[in-house]
TrEMBL record, chain A:
PROSITE patterns: RADICAL_SAM
SUPFAM superfamilies xref list: Radical SAM enzymes
Radical SAM core domain location: 27-242
Signal peptide positions on this chain: none
Transmembrane segments: none
Pfam family, one: SPASM
InterPro entries assigned to the protein according to its UniProt record, in alphabetical order: 4Fe4S-binding_SPASM_dom (IPR023885), Aldolase_TIM (IPR013785), Elp3/MiaA/NifB-like_rSAM (IPR006638), Radical_SAM_PqqE_MftC-like (IPR050377), rSAM (IPR007197), rSAM_sf (IPR058240)
Record's protein name: Predicted Fe-S oxidoreductases
GO molecular function: catalytic activity; iron-sulfur cluster binding; metal ion binding
UniProtKB/TrEMBL annotation, chain B:
Protein name: Acyl carrier protein
Organism of provenance: Roseburia faecis
Length: 343, 79
C-alpha cells in the first residue's frame, strides 16, 4: 500500500512529527522498532556491528513473540518497523514477519546487502507488505565495495537489487556508512548524485566504534563533519539521517538521537536503546515493550534530548559506557553500565 | 501574496518542481516529484502556508491540483 493512501500509518507518522514540532525534539515519543530476528548472514563485512561473520544465530524469538510485539508497537503509536540482520533475506520467516506486522499499520522497511534480492524476491516482498528496501553501499567503485563486504560481485548485485526493489514498487534507498575517515573522500557526493539520478533515497549511517570496529574512535563523525552533512542536506533531495525529522518539518531541523525512541530487538528478544548501544533494557518475552521503553527513558541520557547521535558522534559517551565486553548478542544490563544520574 | 500564489508556491517548495508544471493538469504521480514522500512535503507546506491542520482523510484524498482546491475550501481557504 502506498504511504499516501495508508491512513493508519499516516496518522501515526504525523502524530510523531507533530510531537517533534511541539516538543522541539523526539523527546520520549515512540517511533518504531529495529528488529534483528536472525543474525545469520551471507556476507563477511569488515565493518559489521552485529558480529554476523562469526556469530550467525537464529536466537529464540518466535512468530508468536512477533505477533505480541507488533500489537504492542502499534498500541504505542509506532509507525515504523525496520528489519535488519544479519541479512534478512536468508531468514525463512521473513515474509511471515512482514505479514504479521502488516503494511496496514506499519511502514515496513528492510536493510539488505541486496545479494539475494532478485526480481522475483522483490515482487514477493512487495506483495507481503514491504514498503522500502535499503541497500548498503560502501562506494561507487565495485572493487572497494566488494573489499568492504568480503564477497566478490557484491557491488553488482547491490546495484541490481536497487533497481529490482524500485521496479517492484518499493522505495529503494542506499545506506551509506559515513565517518570521519571518508566524509571528504568525494564518495558521499558521488553516491548522492547516483541516488538523485536513479530516484533512490539516501540514508546516512554513521560509523560507530562498535562490533568489528570496537574502540576505533577515529572513525566517528566530528562536529565539523556533522555540519558538512547539514550542508549536503540542503543540496540533495531525499537525503536522510535518523537525527533529522522523518517528515519535512520547517520548525525543527534536528530532532535528535532516537536511542530508545526506536529500540533495537536482538534475536533473543533483548531490547537495546539502538543498534550500537549494547545495553539491555529488558526482554520482550518477559515484559511489555511500553514498560521496557519507560525504563530506558528513565535514564536521563535517553529521557532528555540529545541533539547528536550517541554512537556516531559522541566519543566521550561511547568510551565511557560502551567499551565493556558487550555486543548486540550479549548486551550488558543497563544498570551495570549507567547510573541513573549519568547524563 | 494571494491564496493562489501561496497554493502554487506550496507545490513548488513541497515537491521541488518548477512553477510551470503547477497547473490544473498536475496530479499525484504525474511527475516523479509527487510521490508518497513528496506528498508529505506538499501537505506540510500547505499547512504552514494556510495555518491549517489537515485531516488524514483529506491528505489521502488530495490527489490533484484541482482536488486540492476543493479540499482546502473545507478549511475556509478559497483559492
Amino acid at each position: 500500500m502506498e504511504l499516501k493512501d495508508n491512513k493508519r500509518v499516516l496518522q501515526k507518522m504525523r502524530a510523531f512529527d507533530k510531537y517533534i514540532s511541539k516538543n522541539g525534539n523526539v523527546g520520549t515519543a515512540p517511533r518504531g522498532i529495529l528488529l534483528n530476528y536472525s543474525n545469520a548472514c551471507n556476507f563477511k563485512c569488515q565493518q559489521c556491528f552485529t558480529q554476523s561473520p562469526s556469530r550467525p544465530v537464529c536466537g529464540t524469538l518466535t512468530l508468536d513473540d512477533i505477533r505480541k510485539l507488533a500489537d504492542e508497537a502499534d498500541e504505542l503509536g509506532m509507525y515504523e518497523v525496520l528489519i535488519e540482520g544479519g541479512e534478512p533475506l536468508v531468514c525463512k520467516d521473513l515474509y511471515d514477519i512482514i505479514r504479521i506486522f502488516g503494511a496496514d499499520r506499519f511502514y515496513i522497511e528492510m536493510t539488505s546487502n541486496g545479494y539475494l534480492l532478485t526480481k522475483a524476491v522483490a515482487q514477493r516482498l512487495k506483495a507481503a507488505g514491504m514498503s522500502r528496501v535499503s541497500i548498503s553501499l560502501d562506494s561507487t567503485k565495485a572493487e572497494i565495495h566488494d573489499r568492504y563486504r568480503g564477497v566478490k560481485g557484491a557491488y553488482e548485485h547491490a546495484i541490481q537489487a536497487l533497481e529490482n526493489a524500485k521496479n517492484a514498487g518499493m522505495q529503494a534507498s542506499v545506506n551509506f556508512l559515513v565517518g570521519h575517515y571518508n566524509i571528504h573522500s568525494g564518495e558521499i557526493e558521488e553516491i548522492a548524485e547516483f541516488c538523485q539520478k536513479n530516484d533512490y533515497h539516501f540514508s546516512i549511517v554513521p560509523a560507530t566504534p562498535t562490533g568489528n570496529w570496537k574502540a576505533k574512535f577515529d572513525v566517528m563523525l566530528t562536529p565539523e563533519d556533522t555540519a558538512y552533512l547539514e550542508k549536503l542536506r540542503t543540496i540533495y533531495k531525499h537525503f536522510w539521517r535518523d537525527i533529522w525529522p522523518p517528515l519535512p518539518n520547517k520548525k525543527v531541523k534536528v530532532s535528535g538521537c532516537i536511542a530508545v525512541n526506536r529500540p533495537y530487538i536482538n534475536p533473543y528478544g533483548d531490547v537495546l536503546p539502538c543498534s550500537y548501544l549494547h545495553m539491555k533494557l529488558g526482554n520482550i518475552k518477559e515484559k511489555p515493550l511500553k514498560e521496557i521503553m519507560e525504563y530506558g527513558f528513565s535514564y536521563p541520557c535517553f529521557g532528555n534530548p540529545h541533539e547528536c547521535c550517541y554512537a556516531g558522534e559522541d566519543p566521550e559517551f561511547m568510551e565511557k559506557y560502551c567499551m565493556n565486553d558487550m555486543s548486540i548478542l550479549d548486551p550488558i544490563d543497563i544498570e551495570k553500565v549507567l547510573e541513573k544520574n549519568d547524563k | 501574496m494571494t491564496n493562489l500564489e501561496k497554493y502554487v508556491n506550496a507545490f513548488v517548495e513541497g515537491l521541488g518542481v518548477e512553477e510551470d508544471v503547477v497547473n490544473s493538469k498536475l496530479e499525484y504521480q504525474s511527475v516523479p516529484e509527487w510521490d508518497s514522500v513528496g506528498h508529505m512535503g506538499l501537505i506540510s507546506e500547505l499547512e504552514d502556508a494556510f495555518d491549517i491542520e489537515m485531516e488524514t482523510d483529506d491528505i489521502v484524498d488530495f490527489n490533484s491540483y484541482n482536488t486540492g482546491i476543493k479540499i482546502l475550501k473545507k478549511y475556509n481557504v478559497e483559492i
